[in-house]
Amino acid sequence: MAKTLFDKIWETHVVAEPSGEPALLFVDLHLIHEVTSPQAFDGLRLAGRRLRRPDLSIATMDHNVPTEAGPITDELARAQLEALERNCAEFGVPLYATGSGREGIVHVIGPELGLTQPGMTVVCGDSHTSTHGAFGTLAFGIGTSEVEHVLATQTLPQRKPASMRLLFTGELPFGVTAKDVILGAIGRIGVAGGVGHVVEYAGEVVEGLSMESRMTICNMSIEAGARAGMIAPDDTTFAYLEGRPAAPKGADWERALEEWRLLATEDGASFDRDVEIDVRDLAPQVTWGTNPGMVTSIEGAVPDPADYADDDQREAVERALDYMALEPRTPIGEIRVDRVFIGSCTNARIEDLRTAAAVVAGKRVHSSVRAMVVPGSATVKRQAEDEGLDRIFEAAGFEWRRAGCSMCLGMNPDILAPGERCASTSNRNFEGRQGAGGRTHLVSPAMAAATAIEGHFVDIREYVLEPVA
Amino acid sequence: MKAFRSVTSRAAVLDRPDVDTDQIMPKQFLKRIERTGFAEFLFHDWAKDPGFELNRPEAKEAKILLAGRNFGCGSSREHAPWGLQEYGFEVIVAPSFGDIFRTNCVKIGLVPVILPQEQVKALMEEPGEITVDLESQTAGPYHFEFDAFEREALLEGLDDIGRALAHEDEIAAYETAHPPRFATTAL
């Protein structure tokens, strides 16, 4: 029977499958950060267990770290970062600490270092681990108890999830990006549409995307409720990987390529669920509510709760509009923002920053807006500075920060004040996500950049066509 | 993990869809390096509203939480189930759960029960006590499905890691056959 990419990775990672029990799945790469790991290391110590494979583990500091120069003033954050340092030293886990030059958001540095490779299983105590699926890996987020399980055994007991294929057809219109594709898809299938499923994104649209765009799509799989998202590896994948620090070299590279070329889903393979989405008419997306499925296009308007027949849905929309302080039927283009955040594991890689810089070059951030750019990693930051992007952003009035998760989840000092409204390239618009009482609208980097300049949402398709004065 | 068989209690009702783990345990409380001390921060922002469902007197002693569909979606933070458990909940009944949240609950012995939406709604109307019994797989008058492997772990309070390490030979054999493709130490 024809196999899917998911089937192949699954089958090659089953260590044991006792009758009636879940499969014990081997983990090829375990990514660790400061927030979801301290209790797992404690558990290991309490039980007197060793860390089985420190060589398949790697840690970094991202969630908590300040993005401005100077010492950490938050004592709890500092204690958590110090705990990570102690734990990594005690158990022999390589750590890219702040200042190492290779630190950054865990889902940015894995691919950047070439650690994320096709056919692997990748886990991390973070729901956006699905990002790594862009390389044709089975990558998913886990909780702290599971982190401890992986530390101790390098395996996880797993029932095989169902499979879903999201097939994107048509040609992506000008100004419409990977972020719009995934937001549009979540709007279509809903925030629980992928629950219990591993999603394979396929079709000519995906094949034509860069690795960084593919990562943006896979990153938000969890926002559709999916267990994981993945894309078949191809020449684009291999070209991205070749020469990266941890990528195979020489004869090993050739051998790896041969194996990786066999991973793609075979013709005739079937999925438990198939969804086809035509992107020809897709417009830039903007979320209006308090979950990523509450989304419309820049041409659209805030919905009216009265239009929803389902009681639960209507109440949820009412609550969302109340929290977001939005009136029904307000055109999206009339919504003004106070803040713009360009960053996160969804959209803080070099291509995202280049796109945003191209939009703001020679312009000024609107007087009523405070805007910041937080590169996804120290490496991205260096590269952007080498290309002069930092000077473009700063000349336009953006704050240029150090790498980290920053205002995507606001665990560090970068947060919205209550009532502030933000255009954000991150992945979650949940209540309080970017700061208690803050209001988040998710958009692409190009849309965020243009919004910073104009002070309200604008249609990037028209915006970039205007002659630059 | 403490073994669980059944619980009889009044239920707290939180009838909202898509409640995410950011609401259950906001990010500013994820900086603790201990597994405890989260109960007081449960639903921190929502709890400021005196009308919030869990502020009702009958919700205070509840050991069962009846919730809406896709409960616990979003972030993988286990701090959310830790907080719910420490607050006093032993069982959560909902039409569906976020995948990672559901697994996190099972791992710590907080029992996630899935029932069809109309049955959850019917239980929400029940003013008295409800019994949720994992052995007979019943919640009030309703039968629920539960993964047999996870059920056994919950009923017996088994250690998952110990269960996996019983396969030590197979893990070791797999490792020998699959050398790593990268050397983190050489980076």
Sheet with most strands: strand arrangement of chain A: 5-4-3-6-7
- Count of DSSP E strands of chain A? 19
List segments of chain B where confidence is low: pLDDT < 50 over at least 5 consecutive residues. none
How is the largest sheet of chain B built, in terms of strand order?
A: 1-6-7-8
Order of secondary-structure elements of chain B = EEHHEHEHEHEEEHHH
Q: Please, what is the average pLDDT of chain B? A: 96
Spatial separation of the terminal alpha carbons of chain B: 39 Å
Q: Sheet with the most strands of chain B?
A: 4 strands, antiparallel
Backbone shape of chain A: globular
Question: Count of helical segments of chain A?
Answer: 16
Helical percentage of chain A: 25-40%
Q: Structural class per helix/strand content of chain B?
A: alpha/beta
Task: State the main characteristics.
heterodimer, A: 469 residues, alpha/beta, five-stranded parallel β-sheet, 16 helices, globular, B: 187 residues, four-stranded antiparallel β-sheet, four-stranded parallel β-sheet, 8 helices
Question: Can you describe what's shown?
Answer:
The complex is a heterodimer of chains A (469) and B (187). Chain A is α/β, with parallel strands linked by helices and 469 residues long. Helix content of chain A is 32%, strand content 16%. Chain A has helices at 5-11, 38-46, 75-91, 106-112, 144-153, 178-189, 204-207, 211-219, 235-241, 250-260, 311-324, 350-360, 378-386, 389-396, 445-454, 460-463; strands at residues 14-16, 23-26, 29-32, 57-60, 95-96, 121-124, 138-141, 155-158, 162-169, 197-202, 228-230, 273-278, 285-287, 295-297, 339-342, 370-373, 399-400, 421-424, 439-442. Chain A has a 5-stranded parallel beta sheet. Chain A has a 5-stranded parallel beta sheet with strand order 17-16-15-18-19. A 4-stranded parallel beta sheet of chain A has the order 11-10-9-12. In chain A, helix 12 packs across helix 14 (389-396). Chain A is globular. Chain B is an alpha/beta fold and 187 residues long. Helices cover 32% and strands 15% of the residues of chain B. In chain B, the strands form 2 sheets. Chain B has a 4-stranded antiparallel beta sheet with strand order 1-6-7-8, with no helix packed on it. A 4-stranded parallel beta sheet of chain B has the order 2-3-4-5. Chain B is globular, with a radius of gyration of 19 Å. The N and C termini of chain B lie far apart (39 Å). The mean pLDDT of chain B is 96. At the A-B interface, helix 2, helix 3, helix 5 and helix 11 of A face helix 4, helix 7 and helix 8 of B.
